[in-house]
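Task 17 of the worksheet. Students: predict the tertiary structure of the chain below and write it out as structure tokens. Keep your answer in the requested format; marks are given for formatting as well as content.
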Amino acid sequence: MNDSVYEALLSSHALVEFSVDGHILWANQNFLNLMGYEFDEIVGRHHSIFLPEFEHHEKEYLEVWEHLAAGFAQTGEFKRIRKNKTRVWVHGSYSPVRDADQNIIKILKIVIDITEKKNLSENLERKNRELQMVATKARAATYAKSSFLANMSHEIRTPLNSIIGITDTLAETQLNDQQASFVEILQRANHQLMTIINDILDLTKVESGEIQLNLLPFDLQKVIDDVISVLGFRAKEKGLQLNVSVEPGIESYFIGDCDRLRQILINLLSNSIKFTHHGSVTLKISKNTTTRPGNLLFRISDSGIGIPKHMYKDIFRAFTQADTATTRRYGGTGLGLSISQKMVEMMNGQIWLESEIGNGSVFSFTATMPATTERTTSIHNPMQGRFQLTDVNHTFIGSNMKILVVDDVDDNRNLFGIYLQKTEHELHYAESGLDALRQVEQSHFDIIFMDIQMPGMDGHETTRLIREMEKAQQRQPAKILACTANAFTEDVTKSLEAGCDMHLSKPIRKDTLLKAINSYLPPLDIENRPAAY
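Model answer:
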């Protein structure tokens, strides 16, 4: 090393020299400034004066100096203590120095102050730990909220299952005008209550990432027809025209989640119908030529009350309506638009609003749904999603099937009997998982409707034991349909993993039950089905 390089090193770094046994021989001013000493205060003293808690690490420290004395360099990050007892972090490089005969005569240490860097790193680590704790608490809170809502869903849906079932069955009987009017009131109230429950659960599932799009080919016109069949009567009741306009040239089949698209359209059109007293509500579908993402553009326009501009930014927030008077007059939870916005974003689209008080509103959204020539016929299962007709294994002969209903609630078992009383199926009942196992062991059933949340042995454990019994006895597996008021994706997954073939969410409507049974019958039997079906 020439003199100029050595001078540059002296002026830019903190340097200190030690004897082979670790006593201080020399230090430059940079080192003295860093450690807060005068040279006379440290010369001849041992290196250990800079070490915090030396007595706890004496053995390791002595081993380091033995390595240095043997000619091995040492480099690392070290915590040291200044004269004023404050701590400093340094990057130190210890290099043995040899004489002409290659004997080690001293140890040169180059020191760089890294205290600020270390503090930043420690602060970052602390912040990360704090964020992890916050995230853990948030996950726990989300789990607690989901568990609470799942339990509340079960507690509400269980009695609602009987209320809706009996009301629908009552509507099929001979009623006078007044009785029919009473039943219609009950059905509307049931519908409103289910809408509220489903909205709250949907919002929770979207926020927690529970909802995933099920991308399959679908017929766009079929989705439109479904929406109009649901809302057409409601619009007619209010004297409104419900119009649909599809741009010429729009393809017929697309790949996307038709159930979620249907849900968005029903949410937006329901809002328009609710807030429109005269005139019309129009759904227009076209190719997206805006700068917003997506290949399809949907516009829902109405001649309703309109929305003030200062509410635009809040209208898509959960539990929000234009004002409290709107909530009192029109009802609703204010969740539909928030849910719709999140689902549109999942479809790689955007939703926006144009409105003026007294002149109606236009809700527009785009969606990314590639066109396709593939056509797929599917049956809709309210919770599980979709399964293909070709996926159903038609193993039953004739339309008279042996069915076991497993449920610990008397009303729920009775409701199945009422639903199926005019069919040719042979019904049996079990009030617990153990009772179901006993009956399955004694007799083969074609279909088993399995309640999941039962005391003692629940539906999942019962299903697993039935599957093990079938396998051990080499019996034809029964079709097991999980019936539960728990409506989250994880509940569906648990049911399928336990061995269930399908998951039905309570309240189970009569038409849903019959469709589920019919899906396991040969097509010929479905075509020749008696009128009671």
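Marker's comment: Residues 322-332, 377-398, 524-533 have pLDDT under 50 and may be disordered. The domain at 382-527 is CATH 3.40.50.2300 (Rossmann fold).
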